Amino acid sequence: MTDPVPVAVLGARGRMGQEVCRTVEAAQDLTLVAAVDIGDELSSVADAGPLVVIDFTHPDVVMDNLRFVIEHGIHAVVGTTGFTAQRLDVVRGWLAAAPDVGVIVAPNFGIGAILSMRFAELAAPHFESVEIVELHHPDKADAPSGTAAATAHRIAAARAAADSPPIPDATTTELAGARGADIDGIRVHAVRARGLVAHQEIILGAEGETLTIRHDSLNRSSFMPGVVLATRQVAAHPGLTVGIDSLLGL
Ligand SMILES: NC(=O)C1=CN([C@@H]2O[C@H](COP(=O)(O)OP(=O)(O)OC[C@H]3O[C@@H](n4cnc5c(N)ncnc54)[C@H](O)[C@@H]3O)[C@@H](O)[C@H]2O)C=CC1
Ligand SMILES: O=C(O)C1=N[C@H](C(=O)O)C[C@H](O)C1
């Protein structure tokens, strides 16, 4: 039997971090060697000798964490949101100097959420209208969610590739924000309410019909199979991988 993969978790006291620590401890082929949160020195991560770091922290700190991890030759699985195209390019730059290191950044590790993004991408060119509504717990720092932003980018790319016409919208008078955020021409609406975890609807409309693609993460265990899959595979995927679609054969 091979030795378990040593794993460090950043953001270990957070909602996701606690769930990830429990999951790593329960997996026979993984072992938790460091559980780090705000106030702990990043050097303690390197000292613990992980093969893989899992980051669920905050958009404001994740880039510093990632630079440290890559510079120390450690693979990274990153669930923290806030990754723009520019940020991803910066990560690619760091990885150019560390060609053996693998980094997987995914805005959502839930298998159903990943499939729903794929379904939306497939459906979007076939409908005149499409809007996204994401719904989350009120303790979430970022709006819209990373998942909603990624979904909007993918829908917009699919529509552009299919030469879809602009989405109809006769609004000429608007209270600021009433039509949501505009991401690549796709309207995204963010709801925050106690009791919710993580949910998303993609509403597609055509003459005489609508299609709603809805995904619900009812608790944070929904993200764990994807996190574990990425943790097991990241060392075999040097460079930057965005999303885990390719690991799932999508
Ligand atoms: N990719 C995915 O599937 C998912 C991604 N997320 C994302 O994960 C991130 C964290 O979400 P939650 O766990 O709900 O937030 P949270 O606020 O409960 O946890 C974040 C933790 O990070 C810690 N932290 C902050 N700065 C740090 C630093 N410099 N070093 C180490 N720890 C630090 C905080 O003290 C806190 O304990 C968010 O960006 C969220 O959008 C959340 C759920 C699923
Ligand atoms: O903060 C959360 O909770 C979540 N964040 C991710 C996002 O912003 O897309 C993933 C999921 O929606 C839960």
UniProtKB/TrEMBL annotation:
<feature type="binding site">
    <location>
        <begin position="146"/>
        <end position="147"/>
    </location>
    <ligand>
        <name>(S)-2,3,4,5-tetrahydrodipicolinate</name>
    </ligand>
</feature>
<comment type="similarity">
    <text>Belongs to the DapB family.</text>
</comment>
<feature type="binding site">
    <location>
        <begin position="79"/>
        <end position="81"/>
    </location>
    <ligand>
        <name>NAD(+)</name>
    </ligand>
</feature>
<feature type="domain" description="Dihydrodipicolinate reductase N-terminal">
    <location>
        <begin position="6"/>
        <end position="109"/>
    </location>
</feature>
<dbReference type="InterPro" id="IPR000846">
    <property type="entry name" value="DapB_N"/>
</dbReference>
<feature type="domain" description="Dihydrodipicolinate reductase C-terminal">
    <location>
        <begin position="112"/>
        <end position="247"/>
    </location>
</feature>
<feature type="binding site">
    <location>
        <begin position="106"/>
        <end position="109"/>
    </location>
    <ligand>
        <name>NAD(+)</name>
    </ligand>
</feature>
<comment type="function">
    <text>Catalyzes the conversion of 4-hydroxy-tetrahydrodipicolinate (HTPA) to tetrahydrodipicolinate.</text>
</comment>
<dbReference type="InterPro" id="IPR022664">
    <property type="entry name" value="DapB_N_CS"/>
</dbReference>
<keyword id="KW-0963">Cytoplasm</keyword>
<feature type="active site" description="Proton donor">
    <location>
        <position position="140"/>
    </location>
</feature>
<dbReference type="InterPro" id="IPR036291">
    <property type="entry name" value="NAD(P)-bd_dom_sf"/>
</dbReference>
<keyword id="KW-0457">Lysine biosynthesis</keyword>
<dbReference type="GO" id="GO:0008839">
    <property type="term" value="F:4-hydroxy-tetrahydrodipicolinate reductase"/>
</dbReference>
<keyword id="KW-0220">Diaminopimelate biosynthesis</keyword>
<keyword id="KW-0028">Amino-acid biosynthesis</keyword>
<comment type="subunit">
    <text>Homotetramer.</text>
</comment>
<feature type="binding site">
    <location>
        <begin position="11"/>
        <end position="16"/>
    </location>
    <ligand>
        <name>NAD(+)</name>
    </ligand>
</feature>
<keyword id="KW-0521">NADP</keyword>
<keyword id="KW-0560">Oxidoreductase</keyword>
<feature type="active site" description="Proton donor/acceptor">
    <location>
        <position position="136"/>
    </location>
</feature>
<dbReference type="InterPro" id="IPR022663">
    <property type="entry name" value="DapB_C"/>
</dbReference>
<protein>
    <recommendedName>
        <fullName>4-hydroxy-tetrahydrodipicolinate reductase</fullName>
        <ecNumber>1.17.1.8</ecNumber>
    </recommendedName>
</protein>
<feature type="binding site">
    <location>
        <position position="137"/>
    </location>
    <ligand>
        <name>(S)-2,3,4,5-tetrahydrodipicolinate</name>
    </ligand>
</feature>
<dbReference type="Pfam" id="PF05173">
    <property type="entry name" value="DapB_C"/>
</dbReference>
<feature type="binding site">
    <location>
        <position position="37"/>
    </location>
    <ligand>
        <name>NAD(+)</name>
    </ligand>
</feature>
<keyword id="KW-0520">NAD</keyword>
<dbReference type="Pfam" id="PF01113">
    <property type="entry name" value="DapB_N"/>
</dbReference>
<dbReference type="InterPro" id="IPR023940">
    <property type="entry name" value="DHDPR_bac"/>
</dbReference>
<comment type="pathway">
    <text>Amino-acid biosynthesis; L-lysine biosynthesis via DAP pathway; (S)-tetrahydrodipicolinate from L-aspartate: step 4/4.</text>
</comment>
